Structures are given as structure tokens and as C-alpha cells.
Amino acid sequence: MTSTNYDPRVLKALHPVPGAPDNWKRFFTFNTDAKVIGIQYIALALFFLLVGGLLAMVMRGELITPPADLVDPTVYNGLYTMHGTVMLFLFLFPILNGFNNLLIPTMIGAPDMAFPKVNAAAFWIVPVFGVVLLASFFVPGGPASAGWWSYPPVSIQNPLGHFINGEFLWILAVALSGVSSIMGAVNFVTTIIRMRAPGMGFFRMPVFVWTAWAAQTLQLIGLPALTGGAIMLLFDLSFGTSFFRPEGGGDPVLYQHFFWFYSHPAVYVMVLPVFGIFSELITVYSRKPLFGYKFVALASFVITFLGLIVWVHHMFYSGTPQWMRNIFIVTTMLIAVPTGVKVFAWLGTLWGGKIRLTTPMLFVLGGLVNFILGGITGIMLGTAPVDIHVGNTYFVVAHFHYVIFNTIGFGIFAGIYHWFPKFTGRMYYEGLGKVHFLLTFIGATLNWLPLHWAGLYGMPRRVASYDPEFAIWNVVASIGAFMVGVAAIPFILNIVSSWARGAKAPPNPWNAIGLEWLLPSPPPAENFEDDVPTVISAPYGYGLGQPLVEDEEYYVRRALEA
Amino acid sequence: MTTTNPDLQLNHRPGHIKHDGHNLTGFIIFLCSESIIFLAFFSGFALLKITAPEWLPEGVEGLETRLPLINTVVLVSSSFVAYFAERYLHKENLWGFRALWLLTMAMGTYFVYGQYVEWSELPFSLSSGVFGGTFYLLTGFHGLHVITGILLMSLMLYRSFLPNNYAKGEMGVTAVSLFWHFVDVIWIILYILIYVWQRTT
Ligand code: HEM
Ligand SMILES: [Cu+2]
Questions:
Q1: Is A160 helix (H, G, I), strand (E, B) or coil?
Q2: Which residues are CB-contacts of A510 (< 8 A; sequence separation ≥ 6)?
Q3: Are A356 and A288 in contact (CB under 8 A)?
Q4: Interface mutation target, options A226, A236, A242, chain B, most CBs of B under 10 Å
Q5: Which alpha helices (DSSP H) does A8-92 contain, by range?
Q6: Measured between beta carbons, which residues in chain A are less than 8 angstroms from residue B20?
Q7: Min CA distance, B189 vs chain A (Å)?
Q8: Which residue segment(s) compose the domain that A190 sits in?
Q9: How far apart (Å, rounded) are the C-alpha atoms in residues B108 and B149?
Q10: DSSP letter string over A229-297?
Q11: Domain at B64-201: CATH code
């Protein structure tokens, strides 16, 4: 019997499909294939990680000595503002949307996103606002310098009086980023709700899909509030209104509410998918089912809900009344519960598992350890009496970098290594990967662990010069930061050389369970097309011996033959 | 390829996933999200209105309510017209649909015109304190939505003349009239917040 009888797709796959790895030009076009868009997002985001990282290196270079000698304080203000903005809006959000694009359709068996054109448009907005944001370095007065949160009244000063100034471009970029994110979120949520494989009920979805869904729900609810605040800020800056100007009856604290109503949830938009990545990887690399799968899945939406009612913990020192503080201390403590559920589920999964210490697993374990530390300092900061003392010190900077780089960043690296073979069709080099991990882990620890102490002793953040008593912590931190910077070299080397000439990847190099691993590496343009597997069991059946889908063997062979 | 076990192929049932037809789901999700912007503006407005030391700018006594009331009545009734237009479409009465749809558009246009007249007669501007700022921001942002709605409706009207396009009803019409009802509800809240609720100090 020949294959044509049952599967024209196998024949089709022999021809160069649009998903063929060597056709690199398509990455520079308006391509509507989610897998192409996913790689576009990730590549662009990694570029901006380098940009943001470069700004960080200049800052750490400045901070290695107490006086402001490398750059002057005004420049430094621009540096941290742009560093924070680039990292969040041009590195983290885009790279996570890259993961969503690659993983959501393949994990649920969908051929593509629900709205492929909207998807492509959402991507192409990113380089546009990237250029807008970076252009602000070249306008008179320099880039926005009010910090990534852009609080008025600082942010609505316009001393030079130019209509187009750094802050104006900053708001424009953030607004465009919002438009892109909303387009993405509508797409992801619709795809998850409407385009799952037959048999894939909600409680058969991989945790990554759950977390992506929970995170994108937060985008849909939170982002419009930020957009509202940003529009009002723009009017105050450029059109003479006084929403946030006390002179005209406005209220600067109102802006803080708008900002944090989104930007606290934004933290969960970023961390939830990483929880998903942790759940996927820990099960594969310890070969056990996810401990408490349903609770882990549901905890994502508990986090979504609670994440929306904790924002005032960022405003404890903004003159908030005591009753308001009390409420938000309690909600903040509550959010530790679903988060704790997840952490214990991972530990329970690791317990007694056959752990394989590959590069992605190392990044997961490193990230998990860091997350526990970042979580503890988070609980400390969520307590108003502590926060009022250490708010706006390096303790905060250390806390959020522990979460944002040492956890989220690590999870992203783990995800890149883990799914690299799947979507590029090539194996990465394990040795280089381990070098990358070691440098990053040691560097990041040296960088941010000491800064906790600097903060507790009172070193303020957002300053270019500081009291010499803090010098020792800062020297160590800068050395660590440079190590993290150097770690980019093995990473880039690995990605570039293995994509160009690494060993060809089989469909399922890690022996993982999941629909994406039943596809060839890289998957063809429409994934399973019109031959989607029917899911018959819950995910992560490691060691249970039950197939995930009907006719599993058929799909396995089909992927091998492609 | 020859290695594939024939038994596996014979019993195989390929599954299917619908490629398209998700537009309405997507649009509803988008509308929910869009409503949050208004929620943000409304709560900001309410907070400022309650807490601002001075509310009305100098020389302003309050807002004229007669013209806005007429506008409100027109806009709210246009929602019902749109509803009946949609009903005609489901009954495959294309001309009935077109006529009522056009009427909805006309009422929407009247609303925008009324808004323009009101704006041009007001004694305060965007920069007249938080009062002026919030007034123009809220009504302007809502007005933009009305205009968007009218444009979307004309698109649907145009599409109804393409051969066979509306033979089985049209999802786009459902989406646009949903949008129109949304814009309507927003206006009612806005009208209550801005015009009905008076703060005179
Ligand atoms: C190589 C890694 C990094 C280094 C060495 C680094 C260093 C720094 C430094 C020195 C500051 C200024 C602190 C202050 O003066 O208050 C800062 C702020 C910040 N960083 Fe990083 N950072 C790194 C990675 C990241 C990443 C990956 C993210 C997010 C994805 C991030 C987000 C932020 C944010 C949001 C701020 C606050 C900006 C502001 O104060 O407005 N950083 N970072
Ligand atoms: Cu927070």
C-alpha cells in the first residue's frame, strides 16, 4: 500500500512547504503562518534584549564607582527609563507572544491562529514602535526620563517646549504596544476557546495553554486601563489638559492607579507563561505526571483574578489611606496561595523523578530557586510597614530583577532550548548551553543578591551616584552584570551555529508527551491540517503507559516519515 | 512510507478543526476589552468629580441638557432600529434590512451632528481644568466610536449589494449591531455621569 492512499500530506511534505527551514527570506515578509510569526517575535525580542542589556551594561559601568563619572545623572535617568521600557515592552511581551504563536496552535492541534492576518499585523507593529522608542534618543532633550512608570508630574514636564519630545514618543510607543498586545490577546484567546483538537477538553490542555490563556485574559482586562491613563497623560503633556496636574484640579495619584491597575497584572502576564514553561519542562525532564495538574491549571485563573486586585501595593508610599493599605496587604498575601500551589506541585513532581540535567532543565531549576527568593522578598514588599522603608531602594530593584530576569528570563531561556529542535528542526549544542547557564546563573546571583543588602541599608534606586558605603555591593553587582553580558556570547553562538548546521532534530528528541511532539520538526505550514489527532487522555502521562491520542502510533510514524 | 502499518490506516479517523468562522467570538472578546477603557475613563471621571476642590471653571454654571437629551433619545432609539434591521436580514428581506440600516446610520449621523453643535456652543475648552478636560475627553472618545460605528455600517450596507453575499445572513451585521448597542449603552452611562449628575460648586 502506498502512502497516497491515506495521506496526501506526506507527499506534500516532501515538497518544500512554506515552513521549510532554509527559506529565511519569509521572516522579513508579512507572513501569516503562526510559526513564522513566532520566530519573528522571538528573534526581534532577542535583538531588543541585547539593546536593553547594553543600556544595563552602561548603567552598571556607571555604578561601579560611587560618583557619577561615566555618564552624567541626566543621561542616567534616560538610561534606566529606556532600559526598563525596552526590556518590558520590546523584549518580554514580544518574546512571550512568540512562544504563544509557536506553542498554542501546535499544542492544541490547530492549523493556525484564529485570525492569521491580525496576528501578522500585531507582529509588525512591534518593530514600528521599537523604532519610535529608540528614535527618542535623537530628539532634542533626549529620551523619556521619568522612569518606566512615567509618573506625573515628572513625566508631563516639557522644559524645551517641543511638541515631539522623548516623553511624547514614549507614550506613542506604549500605546502602539498596547494595540499590538490587544490584537494578539484577542487572537490567542479565540484560538484557545475555539480551535482545540477533538477530545481536548479544558482539563486536557497542557498547562502552558492554560497559563497563556490566563495571561492574555489579564492583557484584555488590564491594558485598556493603561491605555486610558496614557491617553490622559498625553493630553496633559501636549494639549494643555490637567487630569493629573494639581494646579488645574487634577490628581497625579489617579495616574498611578491607572498605571498599576495594568502594570501589576502585567507582571503576571509575564510570569504566568513561564509557570507554564516550568510545568511542561519539569514533567518531561523528571518523567513524572504533573503533581496536582488540575490545581495547577486552575491556579492560573485564581492568579488572574487576584492579580487584578492587588495593584495598590505599589502605592503604599503614595499617600494612600490606611484602610486602603490594609485591604491591599491582604489581597497581596492571598496571591501567594495559588502561586504556592504551583511551586509545591513542581517540587512534588521533581520529588523522586528521574531528573535529566539538560540545559533547559538547568534553567528551570535555577529559575525555580530564584523564584522562591524573589517570591519571599515580594511578600516582604507587599507588607506596607516594610515597603514604606525599603520602597524606592535597591531592595525593590533586587526583588523585581529576581523575578523578572532570574525567573522569567531563565524560564524563557529554558523554553528556547527546549523547543528549539521542534521549531528549527536542529539540535542545539548541549556544551555551549551549559556554559550559557553557568555564566548566567553565577552572574545573575552576583548581580542581584548583594543589591538586597544595599537596598536594606538604604541605597536609593534611580541614582547615578551614591554614598561610598555602598561601593562594595555595587562592585560585586557590576562584575556579575558583566558576566551576564558575556553569557550572551555562548547563547548567540549556539543558536546561530546550530540553526545553520546543527544535527537534524527528530520529531520528539526529549521523548515528550504532547501534540506538538507528534508533528515533524519543524512542523509543516498548517500543522496537522485536516488530520488532527483525537485526544484521549490528560496531558503529562509520563510513565503511565497510556497513549495521549487515538492512533498515536500512526501520528508518530507520520511525523517520522515526513 | 512503506513501513506504515496498514491496520493503523484503515481504522484511522482524522479529526477536523474549523479554520474560520471565529470572527464573532473574537469581536465579542474585543468589545469586552474595549469596555474597560470606558470603565477607566468613567472611574477617573467620577473620582475627579468627587474630589476636585473646584469643579466648574469660572463663568460656567453647568451644562445645558436639552440638546443632549434629544441626542440621547435619537441614539437610543437607533439601537432598536438596528435590531429590527437585523431581524429583516434573518428573514431574508434584504430591502427591509437596507432601509432600516440606512435609518440607523442617519440617526447616528444626526447624533454626531448634534454633538458638533453642542461642542461649538460651549463656553469652555479642553484646557478649562479637569471639568473641561474630562468633558471633551469622554464625549470625544465616545463620538469617535459613533463615527466608527457609522463607517462600519456603511461597509455592511455596501456588502449587502454584492451578489449572494447576504444569502444566509451576515455575521458582520451581527457584529456591527452589537457594536452599536455597545456604543449606546456607553452613552447612557456617560449621559448620567456628565449631565444628570450635577456638581455645582
Ligand atoms: C543583564 C541584565 C540586567 C541588568 C544588569 C539590569 C540592571 C538594571 C539597573 C542598574 C537598573 C536601574 C535601577 C535603578 O536605578 O533604579 C534597572 C532597572 C530596571 N530593569 Fe533591569 N537589568 C537587567 C535586566 C532586566 C530585564 C531582563 C528586565 C525586564 C524584562 C529589566 C527590567 C528593569 C526595569 C523595569 C527597571 C526599572 C526602570 C525604572 O527604574 O524605571 N531589567 N536594571
Ligand atoms: Cu505588584
A1: coil
A2: A284, A285, A358, A418, A517
A3: no
A4: A242
A5: 8-14, 34-63, 73-85
A6: 114
A7: 17
A8: 29-561
A9: 8
A10: HHHHHHHHHHS---SS-GGGT--HHHHHHHHHHHHHHHHHHHHHHHHHHHHHHHHHHHTSPPTTHHHHH
A11: 1.20.120.80
Specify if A13 maps to a domain.
no
Asked if residues A2 and B1 have their Cβ atoms less than 8 Å apart, the reply is yes
A259 Cβ under 8 Å from any chain B Cβ: no
Q: How many CB pairs under 8 A join A and B?
A: 170
Give the residue among A221, A136, A215 at the shortest CA–CA distance from A173: A136
Q: Write the CB contacts of A321 (distance below 8 Å, at least 6 apart in sequence).
A: none
Cell 547594553: give the residue: A54
Atom of ligand 1 nearest to the CA of A49: 27
- Cβ–Cβ below 8 Å for B129 and A243: no
Alpha-carbon span A536 to A515, nearest angstrom: 12
A-chain CB neighbours of B33 within 8 Å are 182, 185-186, 220-221, 223-224
| Shortest alpha-carbon distance between residue A294 and chain B (Å) | 25
Q: Distances from the Cα of B2 to the Cαs of A91, A306, B8, B26, B80, in angstroms? A: 46, 55, 13, 43, 64
Residues on chain A touching B37 (C-beta within 8 angstroms): 224-225, 227-228
- Which cell goes with A367? 529559575
CATH number at residue A469: 1.20.210.10
Q: Among all chains, which residue has been given the C-alpha cell 456638581?
A: B199
Yes or no: say if A205 and A294 are a contact pair by the CB < 8 Å rule: no
Respond yes or no on whether ipTM tops 0.85. Answer: yes
> What's the total number of domains in chain A?
1
Residue having the nearest C-alpha atom to atom 11 of ligand 1: A80
* pLDDT tens digit sequence for A17-64: 444 445 677 888 888 899 999 999 999 999 999 999 999 999 999 999
Question: Is residue A10 in some structural domain?
Answer: no
Residue B194 DSSP label: I
A228 touching B (Cβ < 8 Å): yes
Query: Tens digits of per-residue pLDDT, A382-399?
Result: 999 999 999 999 999 999
Residue A7 lies in a domain: no
Contact A148, A230 (CB under 8 A): no
Tell whether A23 is covered by a domain: no
Reported as a pLDDT band with limits 50, 70 and 90, residue A319 is confident
Who contacts A508 (Cβ-Cβ below 8 Å, separation ≥6)? A517, A518, A556, A559
Which pTM does this prediction carry?
A: 0.92
